[in-house]
Amino acid sequence: xxxxxxxxxxxxxxxxxxxxxxxxxxxxxxxxxxxxxxxxxxxxxxxxxxxxxxxxxxxxxxxxxxxxxxxxxxxxxxxxxxxxxxxxxxxxxxxxxxxxxxxxxxxxxxxxxxxxxxxxxxxxxxxxxxxxxxxxxxxxxxxxxxxxxxxxxxxxxxxxxxxxxxxxxxxxxxxxxxxxxxxxxxxxxxxxxxxxxxxxxxxxxxxxxxxxxxxxxxxxxxxxxxxxxxxxxxxxxxxxxxxxxxxxxxxxxxxxxxxxxxxxxxxxxxxxxxxxxxxxxxxxxxxxxxxxxxxxxxxxxxxxxxxxxxxxxxxxxx
Amino acid sequence: xxxxxxxxxxxxxxxxxxxxxxxxxxxxxxxxxxxxxxxxxxxxxxxxxxxxxxxxxxxxxxxxxxxxxxxxxxxxxxxxxxxxxxxxxxxxxxxxxxxxxxxxxxxxxxxxxxxxxxxxxxxxxxxxxxxxxxxxxxxxxxxxxxxxxxxxxxxxxxxxxxxxxxxxxxxxxxxxxxxxxxxxxxxxxxxxxxxxxxxxxxxxxxxxxxxxxxxxxxxxxxxxxxxxxxxxxxxxxxxxxxxxxxxxxxxxxxxxxxxxxxxxxxxxxxxxxxxxxxxxxxxxxxxxxxxxxxxxxxxxxxxxxxxxxxxxxxxxxxxxxxxxxxxxxxxxxxxxxxxxxxxxxxxxxxxxxxxxxxxxxxxxxxxxxxxxxxxxxxxxxxxxxxxxxxxxxxxxxxxxxxxxxxxxxxxxxxxxxxxxxxxxxxxxxxxxxxxxxxxxxxxxxxxxxxxxxxxxxxxxxxxxxxxxxxxxxxxxxxxxxxxxxxxxxxxxxxxxxxxxxx
Lengths: 318, 502
What we know:
The complex is a heterodimer of chains A (318) and B (502). Chain A has 318 residues and is an alpha+beta fold. Chain A is 29% helix and 23% strand. Chain A has two domains: 13-38 and 148-312, ATP-grasp fold, B domain (D-amino Acid Aminotransferase, Chain A, domain 1), CATH 3.30.470; 56-142, Dna Ligase, domain 1. Chain A has a seven-stranded antiparallel β-sheet. A four-stranded antiparallel β-sheet of chain A has the order 1-7-2-3. With 502 residues, chain B is of the alpha+beta class. Chain B is built from 16 helices and 13 strands. Chain B: This is Gonadoliberin III.
């Protein structure tokens, strides 16, 4: 049968969209703190103020006529990323991995002309990618040189680590690997592979693409069963401390591992998706309820990480 | 977390108020629950004729006031006469007057009656016991003998009256009865006999309605008081009770027609049956009641038709909320499908779908050219809007030339919405490829089609406009769905891999 019965899902502790919106986002995320995560520029500033490492900022384009300055900004860079400050769902992110002789190239080797960049940034400024079409600014960021431990795991893109942080406790995590289908982006609904991670160890548990289990990367054919994410402790720690930083109870943190700088906080998400459950092969609800049932909330970041590692670990499925 | 109780009480209240006001409207104002319902109405003409005697004349005519019929329209025509209608609660009368009436005179009164089905005539006041009729000496003993006999055999006023009537109409008449009937009409005899036993009874004048009858006269009936109600007896026909083709023209004991200063006065009735829309009838009735009533019927027709459209939006919104929250279908733009569905109502479904697809397809082609021009977003969308207008104009012209009148309705599409749709789809195409465009556009059109089917439904259109309480019910449903934390139908499939792995 292709469909599950609602009570079967409920027994498996699967969180659904309506319940996420009403019982978690609506209840634990105060509206006034949203701009801390919805505006990536503010997130960046907050992170820097809290001692959390982020990709370096090359420049910000606020106005149309400043678009011409982009080539000067990126002059000595090997690559860069242009993204809208208020974009959502990975929309409007342009990644340039190679700059040579004034020509720009995407991860897949396609050339990007100056006028394409101009139009893209112009679209960003007009608010095409921002929620509700509000005018936006474009952020130019340094390219992340991803950690070679993920060599062969990702196709044309940087793998990122998504952790769901509930009231400061990292409750579930996954590694997102871009594929040819996802066009170098790490968004699962665009076809990236999601690998569920054990909160205690950072070991892979289970992997999916388009909500279906996979055991090898579809493009690189790299086996996905024995991945160990390095710097796991730091990742948990960074994610957990993001709670103090943005004060959102139900939070998705996206991090990447840089070859030189270690874990970098890429962005925060006040409305993290639900596919992480499929990637982990289990529902997130029991963990959320576990945290909700805890009375004291005066634990430090270290205590929370330790608690999460103890209580939210899982036995590998394969 | 604050208590949910007030919320549920509020929703329940909305629900109850919505349902009960709708039922009230249906029952109290006779607004039909189904569209296209017909009711019968009767046009009754009363012609009063008399001969003038070259002196001042005053004609006092009783007007119908029967709870079994509502008066839709009434008017009187009487050239040269002064007319006053006295509207006493129980005794409505028209009074015509003139200084000098000579020769034969004709006055007309016309009324349109709508049956209400309330056939009982109830009264709060107990009528005073009638004075016993003084029988002429020749009839006295016969009458007393019969009444005494029947009185002993009866239990109530009603059974007494019933048995008296049976006896009067008995084929095997006793000598006593034959004697009485030779001197009295059956109706009079019946009333006299009732009065002699102190039973309140009165002679009333009724008009038997029959389609296309002319020159009808009022007939006498007898009402007998019993337990707060006046029961009707048709003595000559030995019938008790009444049906909805009998109008009690006058039943308060007053005369039907008084003419002063005239001779040979006569009233004739002619009538015509008519079928008309139940809705139009009840609206006319509501308009007749001057009482302030919160309804849209008081608006000018143009505003009414605007509201007929606007009031459909809650239905479309309800469909979208249901499909998104309970089913989980994704649409591009939250309420864009409702606006498209509104356009479909004007264009009809098939023409609308074809027109929409044609415009969007052409728009996408032109938009792909615009995207190479590196325009600012605002001017690009403005350009798309203008191009969409060109496309609509072109299609309208072509379909006109080809004689396809359906194509002309394409102008009903909201152009700004179309331009935004084209822009979004074009971006989607560039970012995620054509497949996503078809999925998201198809989802929107599917939702729009369902919303259209719901909004185009005759019954739905009838209800949302005539029973405004329905909107409170929709509001309650939307609020309840806003609280739904269960699984969406599409999630049952999406999360299927998570079942049974624990």
